[in-house]
């Protein structure tokens, strides 16, 4: 499964990077495949492992913020591995094919 999630501290002001770093640290230390971008962190693993990391990431922010917002989206597809890379590779392949269509 792939889980994309965002943990946002509320009530701490506008600059939340330090709090978000606490959550991302949990993800990076988990050992699960992951990616972090400007809006979400995605991680891949089984249900229990992913939900444990999300829970601990929220707890890390919650330890320092009076309120926490969690946005979570999951792609539950048993038997699929390396989805973080494979999904992007598929899109890139289609984009590359489109570039070659005009060359002939």
From TrEMBL:
Belongs to the UPF0045 family. SUPFAM superfamilies: MTH1187/YkoF-like. This is MTH1187 family thiamine-binding protein. It holds the Pfam family Thiamine_BP. It comes from the Bacteria. NCBIfam families: MTH1187 family thiamine-binding protein. Residues 3-91 form the Thiamine-binding protein domain.
């Amino acid at each position: 499964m792939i889980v994309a999630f965002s943990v946002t501290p509320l009530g701490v002001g506008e600059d939340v990077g330090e709090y978000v770093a606490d959550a991302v640290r949990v993800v990076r230390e988990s050992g699960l495949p992951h990616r972090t971008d400007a809006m979400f962190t995605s991680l891949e693993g089984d249900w229990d492992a992913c939900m444990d990391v999300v829970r601990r990431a929220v707890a890390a922010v919650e330890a320092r913020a009076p309120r926490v917002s969690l946005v979570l989206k999951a792609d539950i597809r048993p038997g699929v591995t390396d989805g973080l890379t494979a999904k992007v590779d598929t899109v890139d392949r289609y984009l590359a094919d489109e570039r070659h269509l005009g060359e002939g």
